[in-house]
Amino acid sequence: MDIIVIGSGPTGLLTGAALAQRGHRVVSVDRDPGPAADGSWARRGVMQFEHAHGFRPQVGDVLAKRWPAGLEAWLEAGADPVEITLPDGTTVPIGHRSLRSTFERGLRAAALRTPGLELRAGHVDVLLTTDDQVADDQVTGIVIDGEPMRADLVVDASGRSGRPDRCAPDPTLIGSCGMAYVDRVYRLHPDAEPGPLDGPVAAVNDYDGYQILVFLHHAGYFSVLIVEPLADHELKVLRHRPAFEAACRAIPTLAAWTDPERAEPVTGVLVGGALRNTYRPQRLLRGLVTVGDAVATTTPTRGRGLALAYTQVDALLELLDDGSPDARAVAEPFDAWCDTWIRPWVDDHLAVDDELVERWQGADLDLTRPLTSNSICTAAQVDPRIDEIAGPFYLMTALPACLEPAEPLARAAYDSGWRPPYAAGPGRDDLVEMLAAVAV
Ligand SMILES: Cc1cc2nc3c(=O)[nH]c(=O)nc-3n(C[C@H](O)[C@H](O)[C@H](O)COP(=O)(O)OP(=O)(O)OC[C@H]3O[C@@H](n4cnc5c(N)ncnc54)[C@H](O)[C@@H]3O)c2cc1C
Asked: Per mean pLDDT, which range of 135-144, 179-188, 392-401, 429-438 is the poorest?
């Protein structure tokens, strides 16, 4: 088949390479022409390129299964596989440490070497349908920079902000996460030890009014994030370097990590764009299928985006390999699959994010509502049986519904009056007061 993939991001490259390996002629079109001759890469329209990323095991697993050369190139670029040792002595892979830019550079290098896959620069304006009008029932190609290009199958992997199809369906789920964040990438000095972590990859601390995270990447790179309610205008000052640095000095975990004796910044302060949880069903047109962030986006606080995108690609390839129905009608069974396996994660994020922001803004937990996955898992601090139930949820090998048996245990903890403590350090009001004295 002749296949066009719209978007050469992580989803488009994996899908394009895997389809090319099956003998199809694949063109992956992206409005981004790739790195400049000096190696710099502006990656306009993909603001997350420079932002902190955690890589769950699904990313490496699907690459290993569907595109081993992609995984190899990512490892060559510097990705660092992470394992944990369980109490019984067995080791379990829990993902990779990497910068997002390292991930994309590795995949792109492998894609350029993949026979049958062509990377083309250009903006996809609109889909072509049988009579070259949008909104007919059969897609026959795309219009790229004003020129038509035909294909048997068009795969839309255009991400959260791509709109190649003016008739894209309204999302059935959508919500602003109510959070904003700023982050900055640092690098440890040679031989410097990493700062405090809650596990092998990250540190997460909740404060009264905001949250901080540290992600350890590869080669000593790490990202520092401060997440606050979108509505908190006074904390917006954190986007200015002097305020961000003052906050880092005042918050114990960040002070340890960003100590100039330990590390130095390698970027300015990066401001996260609008973050939404979104679920878009397929358009159910023959010859068109949508995959990756173009189907579902989740807020980055749980680092689930790429795991959701890559499990989608895996499922889509399974359906295409199965051959029933024919490839041009694959959107229908894929829609059903996404509805079962992807949509519940977006539902989960909508509930968790709302509740987290309410908590940061001082509200007590509303026990008249069902507990969210976050409230259930947080209660493991007082009832460790919850962790035993929640293991598959943490690893995303089971849907959030697997937490149902843990809900009564968590509810009992909250009914007793227990609430999760805040980390030691300045609350939001202390931070605002301190930042008011910083000249930006
Ligand atoms: C701030 C932030 C932090 C994140 N942190 C994490 C994390 O820690 N862990 C994690 O797993 N996930 C994280 N995610 C999610 C993750 O980045 C996405 O899931 C991932 O980028 C999805 O890849 P994609 O290829 O589907 O989309 P994208 O990466 O958005 O790629 C889409 C591509 O399509 C191209 N395109 C769009 N429209 C057109 C057009 N009309 N014509 C031509 N080309 C077009 C774009 O240029 C782009 O290259 C984060 C997201 C954000 C926003």
From this structure: 135-144
Domain count across the chain: 2
| Cβ 57 under 6 angstroms from ligand 1 | no
Q: CA–CA separation, 303 vs 297, rounded Å?
A: 11
The angle subtended at Cα 338 by Cα 332 and Cα 340, nearest 5°, is 110
Q: How far apart are CA 22 and CA 8, in angstroms?
A: 18
Sign of the torsion formed by the C-alpha atoms of 26, 32, 36 and 42: negative
Q: Is 7's C-beta closer than 6 angstroms to any atom of ligand 1?
A: yes
Which residue range is the domain that position 261 belongs to?
176-274
Residue 407 is assigned to a structural domain of this protein: no
Dist CA 179 CA 92 (whole Å): 32
Across 82-86, 287-291, 364-368, 393-397, least confident range: 82-86
The per-residue pLDDT for 166 is 45
Q: Quick one: which of 387, 379, 290, 382 has its CA closest to 334? A: 290
Domain membership flag for residue 396: no
pLDDT value at residue 8: 97
Q: Which ranges constitute the DSSP H helices of 268-406?
A: 305-322, 331-341, 343-360, 373-378, 385-394
Smallest CA separation from ligand 1 atom 27, residue: 159
For ligand 1, the distance from its centroid to the CA atom of residue 159, given in whole angstroms, is 5
Arithmetic mean of pLDDT, 233-262:
97
What CATH number is associated with residue 296? Answer: 3.50.50.60
Question: Using CA atoms, how far apart are residues 145 and 134, in angstroms rounded to an integer?
Answer: 16
